[in-house]
């Protein structure tokens, strides 16, 4: 999904570019992602979010890649008026937040258009991509699974393994290596 970012930016699909970027770098559930407003995260180093599902507060640090995407998109989309800054990042043409259904259709369209090979592209793909990236960036360690389990509010590491597809990946390899 992250290779898709550069293509979306190149093609000036800034909302899509930002959706993929924030989804893959924040690891939020789609409802929490769609609730973000420009004023919450633009020009900030971090922000605190109360997750809708768990009601837990989560502090998210905004790294340089996200900051760059936010600046590019806010500039290109001309986000400077106070009423726009206080609006949803992922707003429809009426200013309401986009729906999960719309996001899922959009991700299916984008994966088809850009030939991204995914079995069932959906908003959940973004969160799972975040998890896979964290796991792989820490050399597929148990420590990464512990962190992810905490971030995702999972009850166990085995749930996290299943969630990001590690268990199925290992089972597939067993069959392939026979």
General form: globular
| Radius of gyration, whole Å | 17 Å
Task: Count every beta strand, where a strand is a DSSP E run of 2 or more residues.
Answer: 2
Order of helices and strands: HHHHEEHHHHHHH
Taken as a percent bin, the fraction of beta residues is 5-15%
Head-to-tail CA distance between termini = 31 Å
Poorly predicted spans: none
| The CATH homologous superfamily of the domain at 2-117 | Intergrase catalytic core
Architecture of the domain at 2-117, CATH level 2? Orthogonal Bundle
Q: Averaged pLDDT, please?
A: 92
Tell me roughly what share of residues is in helical segments. 55-70%
Description:
- The chain has 178 residues and is mainly alpha-helical.
- It has a domain at 2-117: Orthogonal Bundle (hpI Integrase, Chain A), CATH 1.10.443.10.
- It is built from eleven helices and two strands.
- It has helices spanning 2-10, 14-26, 30-34, 38-41, 64-76, 82-85, 100-113, 123-137, 142-151, 157-163, 166-176; strands at residues 46-50, 57-61.
- A hairpin with a 6-residue loop joins strand 1 (46-50) and strand 2 (57-61).
- The chain is globular.
